[in-house]
Amino acid sequence: MGSARLRQDVVATVLVEVEAILNSRPMIAPSSNPNDGEVLTPGHFLIGGTLTPLPLVSTEPVVDAKLTILKRCQLISNIKRRFWIDWSRD
């Protein structure tokens, strides 16, 4: 993100989506048997299912410029991807 200044609505969106990522992380290692069904996540206890699919991994850097609506959406997606990559390593 560097020195990019994010508007409050962008930060709020990122935080809500990061929360969904955290609550979608499997609580146990997934089975290799396709008949075992879905792996439990915290989202299953909150809403009865996963909150969000795993994001696609991207190596594109986060854009630091005047943010148009499209660039703002791309920035949010990049922040979520970077968060997921860091979170899934732990």
Description:
This protein has helices at 8-22, 42-47, 69-89. It is an all-alpha fold. It has one domain (8-26, 38-89). It is elongated and about 45 Å long.
Q: Can you count the beta strands?
A: 0
Radius of gyration: 15 Å
Largest sheet: none
Q: In terms of structural class, how would the helical and strand content be classed?
A: mainly alpha
How much helix is in the residues? 40-55%
What's the structural domain tally? 1
Task: State the order of secondary-structure elements, H for helix, E for strand.
Answer: HHH
What does the secondary structure layout of this molecule look like, with pairings?
Blueprint: H1 8-22, H2 42-47, H3 69-89
Helix pairs in contact: 1-3
Characteristics:
90 residues; 3 helices; mainly alpha
Short description:
The chain is mainly alpha-helical and 90 residues long. The chain is built from three helices and no strands.
